[in-house]
Sequence to fold (806 residues):
Amino acid sequence: MTTIQKPLRSRTRQARRQRAARSPRWLLIGAEVGLPVILIAAWWFASAGSTNIFFPPLQTILARLWQLTQTSEFLIDIGSSLGNLVASFVIACLLGVLLGLALGTSRFLSWLLEPVIHFFRAIPPVALVPIFVSLLGFENETRILSITVAALFPVLISTIDGVRANDETLDMVSRVYRLTWSERLFEVVLPAAAPRILSGMQVGLIAAFVVMIASEMLGSSTGLGAKTLLAQQTFTIADMWAGILLLGIFGYLATFLFELFRRRVLRWYIAAQQQERQL
Amino acid sequence: MSTTVRRFLVGCFGVLLAIAVWQLASMIGPLAESPMPSAGEAITTMLQLLTTVDLWLSTLDTLVIAVVGLLAAIVVGVALGIAIGSSPLVMHATRVIVEFFKPIPPIVVLPIVVLVLGPTPFMGIFLVIIGCTIAIAIQTSAGVFDTDPVRKATGETFGLSRAEVLRRIVLPSALPYIGTAVRVAAPTSLIVAVVAGLLGGGPGLGQSLLQAQLAGNQPELFAYVLILGLLGLVFQGVSSLVERRVLHWHPQFRKENP
Amino acid sequence: MTSTPSTAGHSDERPVRLDVSGLKKTYTTKKGDVPVIDDLTFDLRQGEIACIVGPSGTGKTTLLKCLAGLQPITSGQATIDGHVIDGPPEELALVFQEYTRSLMPWLSVERNVELPLRHLSLSAEERRQRAASSLEAVGMAEAASKYPWQLSGGMQQRVAIARAVAYRPGVLIMDEPFASVDAQTRFELEDLCLRIREQFDMTILVVTHDIDESVYLSNRVIVLGQRPAKVTDVIPIDFDGPRDQLTTRALPRFAQLRSEIFELIRKAG
Fold:
């Protein structure tokens, strides 16, 4: 089958290369850098003389953002938000992988708990925030718990899937060579499940970020989310925009940093996949 | 007894066990002093709620926001995806922008959207569109870009117009990508619809949840969360069913889901 | 090379390493018991290569899994150096047919070979040396820091063999090890197998469906009959001197043995 498809596939690749070659490289790279610059410039100039209260000039927003970062209160808010996010995400990852390993290896446990887990997974994580608020109040523990729970379920479910999809041959190899259970766990089971676990963590990270903001908006007074909502409610529009910009940048950075981590951990997997695609 | 039946029974037992643990925790555990309602109270309240018209109206609001938003996101996302995927130049030009906005959830822009649109259903729909469009556009563009150029050339030699090539060759081959993107986006749309009610004051179950919390009505608060979980399960089930129905013919889909 | 025996005649005086007697294996299914292996008896002496051939679906792989302790034996017994096999034995290594799936893609070639050595009481230095010398023996020393997926199929199977060799097993078992590589690679790997036997005085059991291969490789060919598997016959292979892909295969005796085994299999099937 593969031998029949090969000429067709190589023709496809060739055609694709030709199409890519139609536009010169400098134009493509120029466009890649150019359009974002043009868009930011467009925002800058279009909003320059804006009197619309909802859309103040970009210059005003950036000036306000700069001002805010000079105040210690604002920096404490940022620290609180990011600290909660990182701490909760790490806890969720550790807990999710541990529980996932247990459930992935024990058939009885997974049969017993999977329906309950899938139910929890189906609840929009933000909806759990009011529950934690009502049980624990407006303390920081509420936010940590909410974020952890939000990130936990994607990690847990992907770990279960990853552990269960383990290759039978590798399992036999481990048994024939009498690997100890810790060798099996760290050298075979976890690396094999790593691609799935890390995509679960990626989903979990975004959920954690959403719930970080939501938990601050729902009745906390510290944190970037709380400050942004407060600014909206008090019509300090430039402050609100500054908060939105910063939250957007943090959301992007969180995913970006995680992607760097993922590429490092999964170097073998990404390279092997690329190799397969080229064949 | 067959494995499926045994598995089902063990699963049921697990659910009962979870409810029992909840019940016990709320009665004698360390949570007995907390305002947490017992499982019995929450489930009874849920069943009562299910008989009220208000609940179904709120559910309808949430569903309308999620589904209308999702459909709009599909239309916009597929259109954008085709535009991005059909030319390497556009693909490069939009890459940085798309990559930047992709991981930013709609809750970030919620304050400004609520400010401009007010606590209306449209605000919710708009947030859903923001939340789902980019993922669908990215998948669609990948599908369009991956369309076999040989097959496209074949269509052109048979004298098909550009629109026909798009409709008969490009779109069908991008369909599995779009299907997957929609299945992934469906739960997101529900979550965003709830967020719009909970944090933006829009209509629907999110708002009911917030009101229950503000009123300190614990059993009702828990009952709403249970209902949201059930709704989430239904949503997931329906979206993967639709995907399978629409794409059952596609070899790629058959391969991925044997 | 001359000091180690390469003919069947010599090996009679050498100690028995693998001893299978009256081995039975039955699968229990809903519709009742299905016998797969019925009363199998043979042994393997130090430094001997034996091949198991038989019609496909005879339960050859099941036999190997039983010997490797991956599946319980229903009745009878198998011993390695006198120890009854009731779990994966320490003295045994297995080379799988699916080379693409038997190496860990996240470990370099070197680390793949070292992995089973970690819990043996070796110093880190000894471990590295053993891995290096095994890779040297299979001609893969330069690929030590590469990853399995960067190698061709034949090279991956070499690494899998190096891993088994580094483990220094009393008995090395191979399950159709060269079934999915091209003909040229296959010849190379067969010679590699013979070389390893010489170099490490290893006892090797190979399952194959290729009659030529069985004649070329082994001191004895064990022919299995149709399911449930039973030993139909054991054919001693008696070439003098070292084997060579060109000259050995051209011997009239080679053709004679081949047709003898072919006839046995046809009758059994």
About this structure: Chains B and C do not touch (no CB pair under 8 Å). Residues 209 and 221 of chain B are 6 Å apart (CA to CA). Residues 254-258 of chain B have pLDDT under 50 and may be disordered. DSSP finds eleven helices and no strands in chain B.
